[in-house]
Amino acid sequence: MLRAFRQDQIVKRYPTWDAVLDYCVYSANPVGRLVLYLCGYHDEPRQKLSDATCTALQLANFWQDVSRDLEKGRIYIPLDIAAQHGVSEDDIVSRRFSDHYTALMKDLIARTRVLFAEGFPLAQRVEGKLRVDLEMFSRGGLAVLEAIEKSGYNTFQHRPASAKRNKPGCSVASCLGNCFQQRTLRLL
């Protein structure tokens, strides 16, 4: 995670999809692995499912926060994929909304949905409240993608937000608290 924090200080653009995914390896995936570890799950298959979910959540946040990130001088949209859709870095910086940008967002959302689908089985491979929390995180991330779609994909002008009832009802802190509570009950 420290690597991701340092990277945010110096890297402001991501040339490829793989470069964005590599950033997620350090920014998002350690959080999920830590939650699993503290909840007593140490195996690689669950960690890989967690990585898919955490990467998808990070990406959904990037697509939702294009405008906010531009204010910080950052673009997480992979520039190679943008170019494939006829969107230049200057188009993004200038916030030029177009059919090309809509196609770009549709592509990014589809790729992100694939990652959510890859990670969704994790919830069925854990016990108790963590199962519910993981499902809520994934459903909340998917709700963000749906909000982007419903807003017409214009993440330049506003930050699409899902309805409060669709937002995940737990934070990492509550997930960790639930894990500690479960482990304590097992010890008793």
Structure in words:
By secondary structure, the chain is mostly helical. Helices cover 68% and strands 0% of the residues. Helix 1 packs across helix 2 (17-27). The longest helix has 23 residues, at 128-150.
Helix count equals: 10
The main sheet comes to: none
Query: Low-confidence segments, ≥5 residues, pLDDT <50?
Result: 165-188
- What is the CA-based Rg, rounded? 17 Å
**H/E element sequence:** HHHHHHHHHH
* Mean pLDDT value: 87
Strand fraction: under 5%
List keywords for this structure.
188 residues, mainly alpha, 10 helices, globular, disordered C terminus
In short:
The protein is mainly α and 188 residues long. Helices cover 68% and strands 0% of the residues.
Summarize the helices and strands and which ones pair or pack:
Layout: H1 2-10, H2 17-27, H3 29-38, H4 44-64, H5 66-71, H6 79-84, H7 89-93, H8 99-119, H9 128-150, H10 172-187
Helix pairs in contact: 1-2, 2-4, 3-4, 4-8, 4-9, 8-9, 9-10
